[in-house]
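Re: that chain you flagged

S.,

Sorry for the slow reply, it's been a week of failed gels. I finally had a moment to sit down with the sequence you sent. For the record, here it is as I used it:
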Amino acid sequence: MDPLTQGVIGAALPQAAAGRRQVLVAGLFGLVSGMAPDLDVLIQSSRDPLLFLEYHRQFTHSLVFIPFGGLICALVLYGLIGRRTGLGFAPTLLFCTLGYATHGLLDACTTYGTLLLWPFSDQRFAWNSISIIDPVFTLPILALVVAAAIRKRPLLARLALVWGLAYLALGVVQRDRAIEMGQALAAERGHKPLRLEAKPSFANILVWKVVYETETEFHVSAVRPWPSAVIYPGSAISKLDIERDLPWLDPLSQQATDIKRFAWFSNGYVATDPRHPDRVMDVRYSILPNEVAPLWSIQLRRDASDDAHVDYLVHRDTGGGRVQKLWQMLSGQPIAREALESTGQYGISRSQGAFGRDCKSLPGERNAQCTEAQGDIGGG
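Prediction finished late last night. Pasting the structure tokens below so you have them in one place:
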């Protein structure tokens, strides 16, 4: 999650456990401790651009590291603030540990992946129930945390936690509905997905990106499960096949190793960029949830030495009316084929048709009947 959200959630839990006279300092300690695990972003290398991918959301976010992280924060904050306010070390440690404990669990609710069980497992937990930024989630919590500190009322912090848990639970419901819609869409196309995931689109839990894998391709669409079910079909793109797509690459080179590292980070959802054949991208993320247009990728170089690393690239293209189209999706409006194609999608799908249709039956039914908003979508 973004630092503000991590901070206010970190503040809310110790505030909820504090007495009236300690609400302000408990919130302050929780705020700092709730953001502290993201100091792992400082673990970087100018020579190895992928190093931060391996260490971000790693040991500092692990469940077993919570007592150590809380202790480190307490040692720093007690010396700077706690001693001066007359707060003992024991409550300082409690407030810091509670704030620190919220971070990894909240990150696991997003789609990025968090190593909660490090060092016992390298599994990246991603419960896909909330976007990394969601103002509807954050702003009420921020308001309640500030009010709790000003009015010295722990009850307000407890209400903030109730709101946060309720919103995350709603995200789980929406995610499961999106998965049902994605499964129905795949069945309608005659596909039997090897795996299928639904992820919230940017800053909301209304519109979801559905990605599923077949034997040779990744298929991407967007769905809006509630309040009215709408499907926005997208694209398909071939899965990465190194022998086919990068025949020039030495399998013993550092670049080949970096592809494996990037594929681990991307949970295997990797493909070559049709516009840049020597670029490997993460298919899971995009500005528009029904397009294959990566937020990040790695660039390989044919003339690189055997020990040279790939370059890590970040893409944030909001042009082509993407923000407007996302708003149309949030509103449940259909989007014409021509308007969507103007965004310059990467993948070429054989099943592009209607770009928005109202599903009248339950999203999980195999024989779901839909009223087409723009045309027909066939199997791809």
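What I noticed first: The CA atoms of residues 297 and 313 lie 5 Å apart.

Talk soon,
D.
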